[in-house]
Amino acid sequence: MRRLARLRESSGRWLSLQERIDTASELLALALESGDAEMAAQIAAEAPGLAAETEERELEAVLAGDYDDRGAVIAIHAGAGGADSQDWAQMLLRMFTRWAQARGYVANLLDASPGEEAGIKSATLEVAGAFAYGYAKAERGVHRLVRLSPFDAGHARHTSFALVEVLPESEGDVDVVIDPDDLTIDTFMASGAGGQHVQKNSTAVRITHSPSGLVVSCQNERSQLQNKETALRILRSRLMELELERQAEERARLKGEHVAAGWGNQIRSYVLHPYKMVKDHRTGAESANPDQVLDGALDPFIRAYLRASVTAEAG
């Protein structure tokens, strides 16, 4: 039923766009025939918006993977580099949150581990909305930051790294089957901000899945039951990702080539000093305004990645 609802929603967007284009075309023909320059100018002003929406619908059409139309779970992990990398991880969390909100998605922080001096060691962000995973998967990989360190007394230039994982949102036990006997569930008191109930009770939950060795935790909800349900949802998503990787490796083995290895680990560099530039090393897409990108303007990079992926698959 969820799949059917998404398909109806997608077809509805296409039909609405078609109706807008047909209406604009008819009105423009009438304006030109009658010589009404003002009406023609008004209709022409709508063209960029129609073109942008058409591009959006075309990108959705190429998101044909099994999980592309689902929500996403974005996990961010600070790399080596101490406070600088942990601060960079927090900047990425803000960037993805802003990106999700700008697209009309609902972003919910599920779990975060604060750094010793600043930033975060890791965080898990849930992004709910149609095709959130299809778009966000373009951000999977290592993100590199070059800047003058605010944590260095000499204000020297530092390079920081953070790993971003993007998982499809699980929709229950349809995708993966989890044996309760394979789970070890621990509870502990939540860290960070919270009310008395959160601070004085063991509401946070950590789940260990024995067969895979995966460990997930959640401490953002007020009750232990809610945290457990959320942690199980993250676990299902991670198990789905392992299955996707296994299937991709099998396809690559049968084809005799590694489909995704060519992109490399470092997918994008954000340079704030000695010049300002954001460059995606997979597609060559660039921006001279890193502040705008770090404020969530990721769509140009995501579109470039999706186009390149379609071209690579076609080749």
Features:
315 residues, alpha+beta, 8-stranded mixed beta sheet, 3-stranded antiparallel beta sheet, globular
Instruction: Give average pLDDT, whole number.
Output: 85
The CA-CA distance between the termini, in Å, is 35 Å
Number of helices: 9
N-to-C SSE series? HHHEHEEHEEEHEEHEEEHH
Cα gyration radius (Å): 23 Å
Helical fraction: 40-55%
Strand content: 15-25%
Rough shape? globular
What's the total count of β strands? 11
Largest sheet: 8 strands, mixed
Structural class of the secondary elements?
alpha+beta
Q: Which consecutive residue ranges, at least 5 long each, have pLDDT under 50?
A: 194-198, 254-264
What order do the strands of the largest sheet run in, or round the barrel if closed?
Answer: 2-3-1-5-4-9-10-11
